[in-house]
Amino acid sequence: MKKSAILIIFLISTANIAFSQDLDESPSPSYSRRTAVSLVPQSFFASGLEAAVETMIGPKGSLKFYGGYYTAEDHWLYNDAESMTGFKLELQPRLYINGDEKGLNGFFFGGSFNYRNTKLGDLETSNKAIIDVDARALGLGFVFGQQIIANSGFSFEWFIGGSLISPLSDYNADHVHISVINPYKRGIVPKVGISIGYAF
């Protein structure tokens, strides 16, 4: 966890420096880009692919939609199961809080509405029983971060936040606990990460 946090901080610092230099190269950078597509690279470490699309719905407002799919045999997070598949959907209404209008560029604050589902096949429980698990949960929370769009259109975003989780399958949620938290048990789950993409 500590190494992941250090890596994310390093990437944010590097991207801020690089993108700031790109913006400074032009005396009048364009902020007319109103749609952005992106990938969430940390999803790769969980054997998944998560992507997003964001579009402006007003001078400072936007909607961002995430979709993610995860699959693996003998997944390292759930090594007592033969297989894992799952997906995640999330909608974020955002408000950009810059002093002047800059499209999708700058600091933002928003809400988070998400649904997640994970299925574990042939999971060995503590009493040596073999079961299949289908865990589902809804989340409601907030997100804060910054998106930087270079003159070339490439974008970098960092974000932090959290969600209040409401499980839809209480029994199955006991079997999908990961190292620090259980994303399917009732509680507040933090979120932190980065995304990279392109705006047009």
Structure write-up:
14% of the residues lie in helices and 54% in strands. By secondary structure, the chain is mainly beta. An eight-stranded antiparallel β-barrel has the order 1-2-3-4-5-6-7-8. A hairpin with a 4-residue loop joins strand 6 (130-149) and strand 7 (154-167). The longest helix has 23 residues, at 2-24. The radius of gyration is 19 Å and the shape is elongated. The two termini are 34 Å apart. The model is unreliable at 1-8 and 23-30 (pLDDT under 50).
**Mean residue pLDDT:** 82
- Helix share bin: 10-25%
Specify the structural class: mainly beta
* SSE succession: HEEEEEEEHE
Order of strands across the main sheet: 1-2-3-4-5-6-7-8
Question: What is the strand and helix layout of this fold?
Answer:
Blueprint: H1 2-24, E1 35-39, E2 48-56, E3 61-73, E4 83-96, E5 106-124, E6 130-149, E7 154-167, H2 170-173, E8 187-199
Antiparallel strand pairs: 1-2, 1-8, 2-3, 3-4, 4-5, 5-6, 6-7, 7-8
